[in-house]
Amino acid sequence: MDIRTNFNRNSLFLMLASLLLIALLQFIFLGQTDGLGVIITFLFAFLGCSLVAVFGGPWAGALMGAGYALTGAATGQFTDLEWPLGLMISFFALGAVAQLGAFRTWWSAMATGFMMFYLGEVLAASLLVLASRPDFGQAILGIAFTFLGAIFSGLGFAGMFAFLLIFWVIRLPLPAWKRLLMSLPQAHKVFPNAEEPTPAVKMFGNLAKIAAMLALLAFVGFYLIWALAVGAL
Known about the structure:
The chain is mostly helical and 233 residues long. It folds into 2 domains: 1-99; 102-173 and 195-233, no CATH class. The protein is built from 9 helices and no strands.
């Protein structure tokens, strides 16, 4: 994967503009730990980083994640050392799945959002299990429970709607906005008419759809069984 292909003049412009907007919002709402200001800052930061990753590529996403972490550290929003690495990995992964056609359709965007948020939670929970230094049997059992628990936490479903939001923002009916996005390095991977999807892209979309449907069935089935068991139905 050639890093240089992730960057051109317009992708660097989008990255710089996004970082300046994020830093401005962090400065305006400096010191706030909850409330509308925090929500606005997070929303614009999430969308800005996501657009750079989706249309620039994984390396552009990683650099954008690092930039967001630095502005957050400068304004006191991020104080833990794991934030820069976590944001870099997250937006690198987002750029990688965009290359596979995750944002070609609304349903593939939602399915991919579920998978990324779900697997991210599983990974974080599994690392916490292993950090407690259990024996082999306890480790296997603990990690197995993280896969089940992550389904019912609801974070995967939050990911579905977060990625659907990105899909909608990408397709805002504004000619200047469309021209900007089409000039970015990875636009041909995002818009369905720009390039015919490869078999790998089609397989990824089908797997994402199947995984999301199975998770939804498991989620609904669990709470249906629970409701029957406690007599709520």
